[in-house]
Amino acid sequence: MVRRKDLTMLDNSTAIELGVSEFVLILNQTLNIAFPEVTIVGELANFRVSKNRWVYFDLKDEEATVRFFGTVYNLPGPLEDGMLLKVRGQPRLHNVYGFSVNVASIQPAGEGSIRKAADLLRIQLAKEGLFDEARKRSIDYPPKRIALVTSKQSAAYADFIKILQARWRGLDISLIDVQVQGDIASSQIVAAIEQFNAESDLADVLVLIRGGGSAEDLAAFSTEQVTRAVAASRIPTLVAIGHEIDLSLAEMASDQRASTPSNAAELLVPDRKDVVRELHSIRASLSYLGSQQISLARNQLAGQLDALSQVTEHLITQQKTSIDTYLQLLNALNPLSILRRGYGIIRHNGAIIKSNNLKAGDMIEAELASFVLSASVVKTNSRKRIHHA
Amino acid sequence: MPKSSQEKNYAELKDELDSVMLQLQSETTDVDAALKLYQRGLELVQKIEEYLKTAENTVKELKAKFEQDLK
């Protein structure tokens, strides 16, 4: 008995007796201390969505299965049973429904699964028209204000800025520094895109870039949230993620895609050197064409000036000839030249005698070619007409 | 060609010369009038010749000036 009592006493001292709710509370407190957050990788099974809001699924491997509970906002995109997922969350014992991990984030894991997830999402977003060519807008060339979303620490950022500044000047570049991989990359990128789109004076172009990496590194740029944010941007978008061969969903939803961050800079602005060279060549041909036109016009004008002068000079010559004729005629009519032929002008008291009103004794003057003589009238006779035989 | 208010233009000079010639050839014109007309005729011829000479020089000057400007 004593032993048994002892045993009972021993049991009482080590085993804790709790109410159910108390147990749940203590277990959850314990779990919270031991596993404030846990990331579990496993194959997706029994995936279902309830009331378009709640998400239930299991992750399993060969030996075990764990239940998960979350919301549709945690989903990276459409999922299918069999995909390998990396799920971060908090283990919890529910008052009624038992044990599950409350989901904080879900990411496809492993190349195959990531591609599968991206394929499913791509098909869905394509159906919604997010990648339609008709949606693509043109980007100002060159733009004045550039809204840049990338990691300031990255080589992509350095390359982009270096090439941009080597090619063009006077650009106004605003950067929102974001993480470009990992759990929070998606939400930071979406927030940056929304922040730029909320400005009262919108930038001319929104540039989203990231350098190369594994499919997992680039996963943020193929999430539903980032892809939708790019598609919804009021500012025209230029997206360059990874290398030429990588094609993210964000790039497909963008207005323009560049193969690399450096290529993005090249697409965005012309090279000053090319522009200056082109201007020089235009100036040269302009000045050549201009001088050709001017010399043509000058030749025509010189011809017209000659013709004009000739016509005027001809006119003047004609007039001079006609004046010479006048002069000859005038000289022929000169009364003095008549006197030289022996005629004389007879005057009485200074007046020319035209009719017979003189009487004997009147003094007259006779004007001849080279002299004037004074005489007295002896007699006047009426002139007898001389008839020629 | 500059022309003051008293100065006649070419057409007016020419008209007056025509009128002088017409009067000179008229039978009613006496010798004294004829002499005056003759003298006026000569004056007009001289004026017209000066006028034409000036016109000729002006054409040459203008042409030279414009040829210079065109170069």
Task: Describe the structure concisely.
The complex is a heterodimer of chains A (389) and B (71). With 389 residues, chain A is an alpha/beta fold. Chain A has helices at residues 2-14, 20-34, 111-128, 155-167, 185-197, 224-232, 249-253, 261-268, 272-332, 335-339, and strands spanning 38-50, 54-60, 65-71, 84-94, 98-108, 145-150, 172-177, 205-210, 237-241, 256-257, 345-348, 351-352, 363-367, 372-376.
How is the topology of this model organized?
The complex is a heterodimer of chains A (389) and B (71).
Chain A: H1 2-14, H2 20-34, E1 38-50, E2 54-60, E3 65-71, E4 84-94, E5 98-108, H3 111-128, E6 145-150, H4 155-167, E7 172-177, H5 185-197, E8 205-210, H6 224-232, E9 237-241, H7 249-253, E10 256-257, H8 261-268, H9 272-332, H10 335-339, E11 345-348, E12 351-352, E13 363-367, E14 372-376
Parallel strand pairs in A: 3-5, 6-7, 6-8, 8-9, 9-10
Antiparallel strand pairs in A: 1-2, 1-4, 2-3, 4-5, 11-12, 11-13, 13-14
Chain B: H1 10-24, H2 31-70
Helix pairs in contact in B: 1-2
Describe what this molecule looks like in 3D.
The complex is a heterodimer of chains A (389) and B (71). Chain A is 41% helix and 23% strand. Chain A is an alpha/beta fold and 389 residues long. A 5-stranded mixed barrel of chain A has the order 1-2-3-5-4. Chain A has a 5-stranded parallel beta sheet with strand order 7-6-8-9-10, with helices on both faces. Chain A has a 4-stranded antiparallel beta sheet with strand order 12-11-13-14, with no helix packed on it. In chain A, β2 (54-60) and β3 form a beta hairpin. With 71 residues, chain B is mostly helical. In chain B, 77% of the residues lie in helices and 0% in strands. The model of chain B is unreliable at 1-5 (pLDDT under 50). Chains A and B meet through α9 of A and α1 and α2 of B.
